[in-house]
Protein 1
Amino acid sequence: MGRALAASTLEQQDAARRQQLANQGIAKVDGNIAHAKEQLMMQPWWLDWTAGLFPVILAVFLLRSFLFEPFKIPSGSMIPTLLIGDLILVNKFHYGVRLPVINKKIVANNDPQRGDVMVFRFPKDTSVDYIKRVVGVPGDEVSFRAQQLYINGKAAPLEQKPPPGFYDEESRRYFAEFKEKLNGVEHSILVNPQSQPFYGPDDRIAFPFRENCRYSAEGVTCKVPAGHYFMMGDNRDNSQDSRFWGFVPDENIVGKAFFVWMNFGNFKRIGSFH
């Protein structure tokens, strides 16, 4: 289509040129556009295809880089809020506009709040994206003791849902499900009050600002440093999170997760979530 149009335009221009010369009394004109037309028509087909596809590629790039990006939930660390196989959308401008690849913030927007579900680059391997819930913001003292979350010395409101609780289809078991409230955001979590995570010996847990954390038989207490966040999974007994590998720096933030757009195993999963 593009090549034919270019050849037609060339032919029209040549005819106009010859007519102009004829009006000046010049009947014999050098040059033959047949060869030029042949060269135009011989251009590879993929040039036209690429030219037509470029605007689409550009639009997708801008959309994924600055607005919304899809992710797939690979693990059960956010059960019951997010299940394995959920395809989610992440708002990439909610926390500010960032340059692609280097992830440098160029336009500030909202700060992460307690209760947000956030996608971020894993501090120990920034090529990997993680998703957890924000439980501590800069300046907070976060404690997780005896399976209870405390923020600045106050226990996060926790209420057990009526039995039988959350049914996990993969293991075909019921788990105790609780309602937790953070910063006015109510969400469900799974936690076994009789369980106690094993954090390992103190000297085996190392990460930046490790000196801000204290580990004991009861649990862990951390003071969140400036420009960092404390993250935890909603599946508290089955989540590798800030309790084990430390704080998430602001420059690692990808965006705020807010919507399940597809789950091919369960269409009822589609919708927004806190």
Note: Residues 3 and 41 are 6 Å apart (CA to CA).
Protein 2
Amino acid sequence: ATLPAGVLSDRYGRVPILRIGLVITVISGLLLTVLAAPFPVITIRLLEGAGAGFFAAASMAYVNSLPDHEKKSGYFMASLNAGLVIGLVFAGWLAAHMPDPATGIIVFAGLSIIPAAASFFVQETPALTPKGDYRALVFLLKDYRWLWYSAVILIGITGVVTSLYPKFSGYSPDSVGIWISLMSIATIASVLVASRLSLPPVLTIRWSAVLMVIAVMVSYFSPLGFVMIGIGAGIVMIAQMSFLAQAKGHQGVAMGLFSTATYLGMTLLPVMTGVLADSAGFFFAFCVTALFAGTVFFTIERCECRLHRI
């Protein structure tokens, strides 16, 4: 849903789309507290995912269109990762310790009402000019293709280690959960720091790719690699959003594509490396993942980014 949400937010405004996403989240969360049959639950989960996609694309476009977008994007990405950690840990604890396993759903569905209500006090950025963005979509997709590639690979790596490590390490689920949480915490810290440094985007992405190569190989030998990957992912996300802030009149499309690329990476890369791990072993899978990260070092400078064509 992130890509169509991005297109719609450029046409109709970012705030209305993020409000729709939050309302969908509230409704689907409340429905999940009373549904138990598999098909309705799966259907509502798909609806909930669409709501999250609407909110993510539109709110990222809103933040990245502000004058101080670098600092604000740091706060925003840190908040997303903090929510991920809190949701996983606290909802899991509630499911394990409360009589009703849906307690976590009830609590977070209730909490989601707060941002949904608060969104009606958010004002649209005045610079927004509604337009049909299909031409911009084609342009950004083509000329920024190496940036999308960097997002698929470097953010997708977080999904690779998360999916491989439980079986590879042999650690208990709670231990693996702690390391995954530490990766998100490291991302929170790195986005807050990187968003204040005004780093050159292309150079930052290049050397972050090198950091990811090292981090992936370290993670094969030690879970400390999780922390390094979290740091690298945070720096990369801020650099990529800073890069895309150049497309001032088309932040909805840009952020929709960015979100789509990151989710695509976290979907495709774990599947690919999982197949490699089963057929050729975990070390080979980690090496291929590191190799993918290394390719970004050479490809990101090929991004044409000719904004005058929009």
Note: The first helix runs from residue 2 to 12.
